[in-house]
Amino acid sequence: MSGVDLFSTLPDHVLQHVLSFLPSRNAVLSSVLSRRWRHQWRSSPALRVPGPDASTFINRFLLLRDGASPLRTFEIDVGHSSDEYADDDVDVWIRHGALTCQTLAFAASVDNPPEMLRLTSWPLAARHLTTLRLCSVSIDGDFLDLSRCPALLHLSLSKCLLDCKTIASSSLRRLILADCSFVSSAKTTTSTRIATPSLRWLHLEGPPRCLLESMPALNAATVRLLRGKGEDCGSRSVLLDALSEATSLELMASSCHGQVLILHAQVSAS
User: Fold this and answer.
1) Residue 147: CB atoms within 10 Å
2) What CA–CA distance (Å, rounded) separates 208 from 253?
3) Where in this chain does the record put each F-box/LRR-repeat protein 15/At3g58940/PEG3-like LRR domain (predicted)?
4) Which of 9, 26, 131, 180 has the fewest CB atoms below 10 angstroms from its CB?
5) What distance in Å separates the CA atoms of residue 191 and residue 185, rounded to the nearest whole number?
6) What's the rounded Cα separation, in Å, for the pair 172 and 232?
7) Helix extents (H) in the chain
8) Parallel, antiparallel, or unpaired: how do β-strands 117-119 and 137-140 relate?
9) Helix (H/G/I), strand (E/B), else coil: 127
10) Is the pTM of the predicted complex or chain greater than 0.70?
């Protein structure tokens, strides 16, 4: 079998699928393998860019790829180098990817809110999007009014700064809110309304500064409420009312006096 080119018998769409699992820089480098490989990366259904100093590469990749071949996966992780990127560029990338993608992810490793990349406030429109993951970005306005994302099933927001009145989706099945900060434009803490009536699974971790509306389809929830300075502990009962339909509930909460309560509950339908 030595020296046999097993790839030459594969159709183009299979080669492009294989390339979609590689970081996009590596996929582009495959163009030097042979004449047949020269343009395969242009039709790869994925953009995967890890690491710093990628702004120019991303812009050129999107400009040069075959527009007739839709992106299905769009993943960018800038790590600790968010200062090398412009807010407008990141916003354009996300909205461009949302046009055809099923999976869209953007992540940074930033803990200081002033250094976070900010997304523009108008709602995200993504007809095919099923999974959205955002980490360490600043989100305000109506961006998380996801009514224009009718296929969205999975939403994960981690370490984000949220200045929005509503997180709304009628299709969402799984929601992760982990270590997010809820603020208002006046820089005071506020409650964000979460309207996800079709939700089946919830993971909520952080200060309880959101109001959960009814979730009649909820099966399982993990809630870890961390007390913030000056927080009104009485507001937690309002948040927990929406979890009454869950058949599996894990709750960890710090009290107003610093104690920690851990509760595991399994509820069987009668």
Assistant:
1) 16
2) 10
3) 122-203
4) 9
5) 12
6) 29
7) 12-19, 24-29, 55-64, 87-98, 236-241
8) parallel
9) coil
10) yes
